[in-house]
Design brief:
With about 170 residues, this protein is mainly α. The chain has 5 helices and no strands. Helix 2 runs antiparallel to helix 5. Bound molecules: fe (ii) ion.
């Protein structure tokens, strides 16, 4: 019987997690492209464009990590953690919300998505630290990705009152 190295199992499990993060970034990049086109506030558009470039770097970092560990990179996308409302609420939202209300709502979704990314990288980082060995190589790229996600969350949080102030009079 072939002996399975326990380090190898940990590495395989970690590759799976890295690919999950990559699938999240793949979905995130697609969403950011849509968001850039629909957002009306210039500063928000600019920040989203900046984060799109960062997200492409995140993909590259994850792809390199996965390849270096001997894994195959995924091109698939996960389902983003966006709220699904009860039908009765969704119907009223669809029939009554103005463009400006949707813009605020989607900025709220941006915050949810970016916070989920923070959580994902934080968990991965902690696992890399506890696993040690070859997975220590993941710490720097994961930390860089985490930093960008956190600064995106912080930007939305800091700028949401300004966005609200701009859009509220039009609601
Ligand atoms: Fe992000």
């Amino acid at each position: 019987m072939q002996k399975i190295n326990s380090n190898e199992i940990v590495t395989q499990k970690f590759i799976l997690e890295l690919n999950s993060a990559l699938a999240m970034e793949n979905a995130g990049v697609e969403r950011l492209q849509t968001r850039i086109n629909e957002v009306s506030i210039p500063e928000a558009k600019q920040r989203l464009e900046h984060h799109l470039k960062e997200s492409e770097q995140h993909q590259q970092r994850l792809q390199k990590l996965i390849t270096d560990l001997g894994g195959n990179v995924t091109t698939e996308k996960l389902g983003l953690p966006l709220p699904t409302y009860p039908q009765s609420i969704q119907q009223v939202m669809d029939s009554s919300m103005t463009m400006q209300e949707w813009e605020l709502k989607k900025s709220e979704y941006d915050m949810i998505v970016e916070n989920a990314e923070v959580g994902c990288y934080l968990a991965l980082l902690q696992k890399a630290q506890i696993a040690g060995g070859v997975l220590m190589n993941a710490i720097e790229p994961l930390s860089l990705n985490l930093k960008d996600e956190q600064s995106m969350v912080d930007w939305i949080k800091t700028n949401s009152p300004g966005m609200l102030a701009q859009l509220w009079p039009q609601i």
